[in-house]
Design a protein that fits this description.
2 copies of one chain form a homodimer. By secondary structure, chain A is mostly helical. Chain A has 2 domains: 63 residues, Orthogonal Bundle (Arc Repressor Mutant, subunit A), CATH 1.10.10.10; 138 residues, Up-down Bundle (Four Helix Bundle (Hemerythrin (Met), subunit A)), CATH 1.20.120. Chain A is 65% helix and 4% strand. Chain A has a 3-stranded antiparallel beta sheet. In chain A, a hairpin with a 3-residue loop joins strand 2 and strand 3. The longest helix of chain A is centred in the middle third of the chain and has 24 residues. The first copy, chain A, starts with 27 loop residues before the first helix and ends with a helix. The N terminus of chain A is likely disordered. Chains A and B meet through helix 3, helix 4 and helix 7 of A and helix 3, helix 4 and helix 7 of B. Chain A binds a DNA duplex (30 and 30 nucleotides) through helix 3. Chains A, B: Pfam families: FCD, GntR. Chains A, B: It comes from Paracoccus alkanivorans. Chains A, B: Keywords: DNA-binding, Transcription, Transcription regulation. Chains A, B: GO terms for molecular function: DNA binding; DNA-binding transcription factor activity.
DNA sequence: CGTGTACGTCATGTATACAATATGAGAGCG
DNA sequence: CGCTCTCATATTGTATACATGACGTACACG
């Protein structure tokens, strides 16, 4: 089977020989995006370092075209900082940016709660299910906990029914995920307590108690400034 | 002068032969982005239509690589909707999306006012200057008025000193610009009144009168729902 | 006459070749 | 010994060639 199809860069490790028809068409761009993103989150590409396109090509097994598109997308999401003619630098989160991010995040989730209560929007069952999943997940599995937490807050914002608000929140996910990872690694915020607070928030939202929900959210997000302190000094 | 330099697509109208050293390096990507963006705003690419890459190449005089990057960026900004293997469709703003956009915009600018007043942030001189410019601009020049208005609100949010908030607001600019254009075209919102409200807002912010500034903002953004009504029915 | 299938055409997705520029090292000079 | 200028090199920016999949059309069959 000497198929001379140009699929895959000349001599790179390609995980998939080709897209078999009828199968999920995993595009090269997606592989590049996933690979680079994972590398950043796992620390393979440390903050402040430059990701060279050739390096990313080798790591993901695709050519420069999809890699460039992935880098652009990651830059738009806040993972990278593009320097023309220089390359893509992994962004470092300064203490000031962390504070700003926290402020905006609180603003968005507060607005979501306001909309849910004011418009009597139903709380999606997914949120409760995520709490169950959270409970069943080992506290040691940081990645899983962070992902569940992410999905919970995403569902909260989505429940508000404002597509633009959801999009804006999603655009912060990149950096929020990195913060959450840091937070848990440093032992700030216990996963069990987080789960309890999530359940309390659901309870308040189900009866559209805006005031109470706001209080719970404020308490829930309170540990974040502690993280900033531990970074800056 | 048969220069076989590959600069410029084979036989497309190229506005710049090459980047002369020491001159502002206007990249092909930027030209593609500007050209397509202008085409969308001017209506050359009507909402709902598909922009084919070859078409965009011919219109902007660059090859597919920069065109694709421009299309991706425009999609990220909300101008386009990418359909894999189908192309890039110019997004249409539904009445619901307009409402959502308005809600989020108000949330962001309210937060900016809150931060300015709470943290006693100085009001940049640029904002007053923009009002002067606005006053000196013919009310008939819609494009200029929209641009001045955009810069004013951008400066307002920037004055809050939260970089993440600023970024988020910027990410809405694409659609906000389109809305503003529509709004003025339909005669909703008079430019003179807008300028007066801008000046009143500056006055309130200079003495950190949060309550008054909020009232002015609410009144200033009030006409927008009228626009939505005129679109949906 | 309607429907299903097969094929042709074309736009997108991907890979690679080419061009231009920034960076860094090294040689020459003050 | 330090500074500067020059040149080599490597990486990004751009163009183009190739592969793949989708859509439309035409033909054959029921």
């Amino acid at each position: 089977m000497t198929q001379p199809t140009g699929s895959g860069p000349k001599s790179a490790a390609r995980k998939r020989p080709a897209n078999r028809p009828g199968e999920a068409p995993v595009t090269a761009r997606q592989r590049a995006y996933d690979g680079i993103r994972a590398g950043i989150l796992k620390g393979a590409f440390p903050p402040g370092s430059f990701i060279e396109e050739a390096m990313a090509c080798e790591a993901t097994g695709v050519s420069r075209s999809p890699v460039r598109e992935a880098l652009n997308r990651l830059a738009a999401e806040g993972f990278l900082e593009l320097h023309p003619r220089r390359g893509a630098m992994v962004r470092t989160l300064s203490a000031a940016e962390l504070r700003d991010l926290h402020e905006v995040r609180q603003m968005i989730e507060s607005q979501a709660i306001r909309l849910i209560c004011r418009n009597r929007r139903p709380v999606p069952a997914q949120m409760s299910e995520l709490c169950d999943t959270h409970e069943a997940t080992s506290a040691g599995d940081l990645l899983a906990c962070v992902e569940i937490n992410r999905l919970f807050h995403q569902a909260l914002v989505a429940a508000a029914g404002n597509t633009v608000l959801t999009q804006v929140f999603d655009s912060l996910q990149a950096n929020l995920t990195r913060v959450a990872m840091l937070s848990l690694q440093l032992g700030i915020g216990k996963t069990r307590q987080i789960e309890q607070e999530h359940r309390a928030l659901i309870a308040a939202l189900q009866v559209f108690d805006e005031t109470r929900a706001m209080e719970i959210l404020a308490a829930h997000l309170k540990p974040m400034p502690r993280l900033m302190g531990s970074l800056s000094g």
